[in-house]
Structures are given as structure tokens and as C-alpha cells.
Amino acid sequence: MSYANTHVNVAMMTAGGLAPCLSSSVAALTEHWVAALKAGKISGLSIRMYTDGYKGLLQGESFVVSEDVLEKISSLHDLGGSPIGNSRVKLTNIADCVKRGLCKEGESPLEVASQQLLKDEVNVIHTIGGDDTNTQAAELSKYLLKQHGGKVTVVGMPKTIDNDVFPIHQTFGADTAAQQGAIFFENVVSESTANPRMLILHEVMGRDCGYLTAATAKYYREALQKKTFVSPFTTTAKSRDVHAIWIPELPVDIQGEGARLKKVMDEQGCVNVFMSEGSGVKDIVAELEKAGEEVPRDAFGHVKLDKVNPGAYFAKHLAEHVGAEKTLVQKSGYFARSAAANAFDKDLINRCAEAGVASAIDGISGCMGQDEDAEGMPIRAIEFERIAGHKAFDASQGWFTGMLSEIGQIN
After folding, report:
1. Is the distance from CB of 277 to CB of 203 less than 8 angstroms?
2. To 10 degrees, what angle do helices 109-119 and 131-148 make?
3. What residues are paired with 159 via a beta bridge?
4. Which of 132, 162, 208, 241 is catalytic?
């Protein structure tokens, strides 16, 4: 169904964890809808914001953006976080939705969400989130098509700092988060001068994908190379370098790495490890379950990493191998994911928002992004059934293997 030359009621929502793109995505989509109205592509426009993600949709919590606010919407580009709030809700997990009071016993969350969209006379809804958000958008789109004749067009925007969504080349916020994580560690690394034989583990977000850890290390090392160090002062480029990069895609040989990093500790007086929060999780979970301990999981079935705590696990074991006198585990995740989008991400968001509004006007549902499976990797509305999470980082890329070689982790 095309919405060309008609009045379009647009809705937006953000969901899942934060990423440095949510505010900018809301702004960019709004700007391109207003531009479409001014260009005469549509005859009228209203924009509604559902607050707190799918929770707001299920409970009918929303507001319509007034014309005077539309004129100020560009200010959102410079904000981190979400301007309308997030939540983690799985529409297909009926028991969890009922337990949390988001719908009543016997109700289908998909039907409740659909009825709210129909009640608000929404023509197009933009779901801004990661793989979980957009797989739920896929379920909603499929349900709307089957049960309500596809009366609402669903156009997703791919947000996740993990950069782990099939078949999207680059998700919103990942580059900014890597840059911010590097800035975080530029300060934290100075703690290596606070105590002899200091072990620092920089825990970076990334449950199943090592992209963010790798990219953060790359940004950090590029910044380090621009600094000047003076002999005979003991803080050097080598002491402040990254000495190990551990990601979920590569096994962590704690014995072998311990022996290698013991030499670094003896020479430099410190060891700096960049590790993904998902590194070694499967082994840790297996160990806990073998001991009869219950491993807590969220509504999507993900292991709650704050309960498993891989950083503390590896800190304890590696400290013994390298002879650390003091160990520090620092997590950059909340710092990095809460930033405003950088220039790279703003450009990507803008291009996807422009194409997303055009797709919505044509009545085409899908998740916007650079389609890796299409020739030339164009930005397009990728069919929701093709959207999936847990895309692994390609650890064979030259820039990454070259970095591992430079730090001595591989030959």
C-alpha cells in the first residue's frame, strides 16, 4: 500500500539497550518525514512517539509531536540516550508480558500492540533497536499482515553497538561506541602507573560478537601512536599499549596467554587486556551449571552477564599466572553506549532514515541497512525474515590479525 499523496500518521519507538544513535535516529527520521511533506510527496503528517519501547506500545503510552517541536527536532542529534525511553520486552513471550503487567491473562501481546496501532490510526511505525527489537518488529509486521491485512507498515532502524545483525554491514552506534571506549581507556590506562605489577582488564560490551572490542582496541592504539613519550620516564608507549585482545570468536587459552603475558608483566610492569564481555562465557556457564548453580537469564533467554561476571573470572585466573600485585577490571560499556552519535554514525543514520522514509511512503516494510547479500551493498529495507542476531565478527580480517601480530598475541 502506497502512502504517496496521502496524510500519513507516523509512529516511532526505541527499544533494547542504549546505543549512540537513538536520539539522532528519531531526529533524522522526523526531519525526512517533514522534508517529504514539504516536497509534496505526502499531503499531511502527524508523528507520534511511543514512550519506553514496546512497553509504551502495549500500554498506550505516547504523545504526538507538535509543529513547534518539529522545528527544534535537530537538537536531538547532539544527545545521547533515548529521547523517548527504552525497555526490554519480547512480544512473543506471553508469560513474561503478563507477569510484568503489560497485558492481561489470556491476551496476546501481538494483538494488544496491533490494536493500539489501529486505535491510534498509525500508518507507519519505525522501530529503532537491535536484533531483538527488529525480530520483534518482524513478528509484529507478520502478525499485522496475517490478522489485519497489513494495515501498518513497519520500518526498522538497526541499532546495536555489537554490530552483530545479519545481513547488515554496519549497525548504528557501533563506531561511536568504539571511539568512546577508546577515550575511556585513555584515562583508565594511567592506573597502570599507580601500582607495580598492575593488571588491567578493560571489559567491552559484546555478548557474542567481538567487533566492538576489536574496533575499540584499534581506535585506542591509533590515539596512542599520536602521543609523545620521553625517556627515561617509565610510562611508555609499550606499557600503555594493549597487550591482549580477547573476543568470543577466538578461544582463550588462559595457560598460554598467562605465560605470554607474564613476560610482558616482567618487562613493562603492567598488563592491559581488552576483552569482550562474552569472552569465555560458555565455559564459565558450563562450570557453574556443573556445580549445580542456576544461571540467570533475561526474557530473551540471554545469560545475565552481570551475574556471570567474566571480567572478575578472568581477572582472578590471569592475575595468578602473571603475578599481578593489583588487579583492576573496568567496564566501558555504559560510558560508550550513552554517548551522542559521532559524525560517521550521523551520516549512516541520515542515509538510512532518508531511504527508510521513502520505503515507508511506498508501503514497504523492512529493516533499513547496508544489505551485505545484495550487490554493491545498497541501503534498503531488508526483509524482516532475513534479520537475525548473533552475527560473528570476522576475526580473519587483515587489520585485526595485523593488530594481534603487533601486540604479540599471534605470530
Report:
1. yes
2. 70
3. 172
4. 162
Neighbours of 189 (CB within 10 A): 22
Pairing mode of beta strands 366-370, 379-382: antiparallel
Residue 296 clears pLDDT 80, i.e. is over it: no
Using H for helix, E for strand and C for coil, what is the string for 51-117? CCHHHHHHHCCEEECCHHHHCCHHHHHHCCCCCCCCCCCCCCCHHHHHHCCCCCCCCCHHHHHHHHH
The tens digit of pLDDT for each residue in 175-206 reads 999 999 999 999 999 999 999 999 999 999 99
> Do the strands 44-50 and 7-14 form a parallel or antiparallel pair, or are they unpaired?
parallel
**Nearest partner of 146 among 178, 171, 110, 112, judged by Cα:** 110
Mean pLDDT of 296-314: 76
**Does pTM top 0.90 for this prediction?**
yes
Residues in the chain: 411
DSSP state of 257: H
pLDDT by residue (tens digit) across 320-338? 999 999 999 999 999 999 9
Distance CA 342, CA 346 (A): 6
DSSP 233: -
Residue 390: which residues within 8 A CB-CB, separation 6 or more?
A: 131, 164, 208, 209
Question: How many Cα atoms sit within 13 Å of 98 on the Cβ side?
Answer: 9
Measure the CA–CA gap between 270 and 48, rounded to whole angstroms: 53
* C-alpha cell belonging to residue 406: 603487533
298 in active site: no
H/E stretch holding 10 reads strand 7-14
Q: Position 201: which residue type?
A: L
- Whole-number pLDDT of residue 151: 85
- The arithmetic mean of pLDDT across residues 149-172, rounded, is 94
Q: Is the peptide bond before 310 cis (omega within 30 degrees of 0)?
A: no
Cell numbers found for residue 281: 562465557
> Distance (Å, rounded) from C-alpha 152 to C-alpha 137?
11
User: Contact, 130 vs 369, CB < 8 A?
Assistant: no
Element (H, E) at 46: strand 44-50
Residues 6+ apart with CB under 8 A from 367: 134, 137, 138, 155, 156, 157, 158, 165, 168, 381, 382, 384, 387
